[in-house]
Amino acid sequence: MIGDRKVLFSGMQATGNLTLGNYLGALKNWVNIADEYLTFFSVVDLHSITVRQDPAELRKRARALLTLYIAAGLDPEKNCIYYQSHVSGHAELAWILNCFTYMGELNRMTQFKDKAAKHADNINAGLFTYPVLMAADILLYQADVVPVGNDQMQHLEITRDIAQRFNAIYGDVFTIPEVYLGKVGARIMSLQDPEKKMSKSDENPNASIYLMDDTDTIIRKFKRAVTDSEAQIVYREEQPGIRNLIDIYVACTKKSVEEVEREFDGKGYGEFKLAVGEAVATELRPLQERVAQLSKDKAYLDGIIKNNAEKAEYYATKTLRKVQKKVGFPERVR
Ligand code: ATP
Ligand code: LTN
User: Fold this and answer.
1) Cα-to-centroid distance, 266 and ligand 2 (Å)
2) Phi/psi of residue 41, each to 5°?
3) What pLDDT band is residue 176 in, cutting at 50, 70 and 90?
4) Is 273 annotated as catalytic?
5) pLDDT tens track for 313-322
């Protein structure tokens, strides 16, 4: 809480091109609930360097992501949209919280295990303590809710554990955050392997729909989506590919699962895939147009970046000073 307002914090990494999974699982939910909260939406570039990045590329992608937040419908006058690296409090609080986090806890994180396996040549300490930096992001703003896809649940749990541990020693310093999982789109799966989540770092471009894909590409990718030989469009465990396509269709059309099953009763997969592709293209087109428009206005975006970093810093510093005092750092004389 800040004053009498509930706080919402979330963030995304500017690594790779955003996918439909990121949009339906995260960004779209943010837009739906933002009005109810004092919000902070960060482009978490400190997290990005836990795997090797090309500097020019990272800078470009970070700006594109920030633009996308706005294009998706987050008004930057009302929502604090900023780069994590512009507010030094994130790194400072992360250091302190590192000293309240156990190796054993971090060892259990499945994302760390996955990423360590993927980047075996660069298992750095930052990758290991990634969840602590994420806890710092959230706790710095006294966030009440954190909307994320369900792959981030474990990180939310460790954030709560760290906050509770700190509060148990020093009193009520941190708000204990709750996870917010959207009803639809919480887990969009790969189009090539419906047992795996759609991910922007997937090597197979046909596995993911990228938010900037044009209509033809989108439809082509859906046509190639891996399904099954059951030849019926029903939402059930045994048909993960079809279930995923129904999830996507539901999220883009706001129809219910039952309506979709009825609509495609007795129809073929080809027809259904085409309908899903068209629904996704229709959903993404306005977003793409706004991105193109916003990208042209450099001065406007720069203004947003500056003002919102200052706003974020104001709130971050409040929490940070409190924490520094609690742990026993000397009083500041400047
Ligand atoms: P990477 O492949 O680089 O790990 P990613 O595509 O998994 O990236 P993240 O940056 O980890 O994406 O996630 C950004 C946000 O999008 C998070 O809130 C995450 O939960 C959500 N998200 C990512 N992939 C999906 C998905 N397939 N379905 C639903 N939500 C998702
Ligand atoms: N780890 C998250 C991104 C992230 C985040 C956060 C999400 C970093 N800090 C704070 C919510 C709140 C991811 O990979 N999706």
Assistant:
1) 42
2) -120, 115
3) very high
4) no
5) 999 999 999 9
- What is the per-residue pLDDT across 206-217, written as a single tens digit (0 to 9) for each? 999 999 999 999
Task: Tell me how far apart the alpha carbons of residues 241 and 225 are, in angstroms, rounded to a whole number.
Answer: 8
pLDDT tens across 215-233, in order? Answer: 999 999 999 999 999 999 9
State which ligand 1 atom lies nearest to the alpha carbon of 13.
Answer: 10
Q: What is the largest CA-CA distance in the chain?
A: 75
| pLDDT score, position 127 | 97
Residue 185 has a pLDDT of 60
Task: Return the percent helix, strand and coil in the chain, to nearest 5.
Answer: 55, 10, 35
Q: Which of 6, 113, 197, 322 is catalytic?
A: 197
| Closest ligand 2 atom, residue 131 Cα | 1
Q: Is 138 in the pocket of ligand 2 (CB under 6 A)?
A: yes
For the Cβ of 152 lying below 6 angstroms from any atom of ligand 2, the answer is yes
Put residue 3 in one of left, alpha, beta given phi > 0 → left and psi -120 to 50 → alpha: left
From 28, 115, 221, 273, the catalytic residue? 115
Count CB-CB contacts under 10 A for residue 14.
27
* 22 pocket-lining for ligand 1 (C-beta < 6 Å): yes
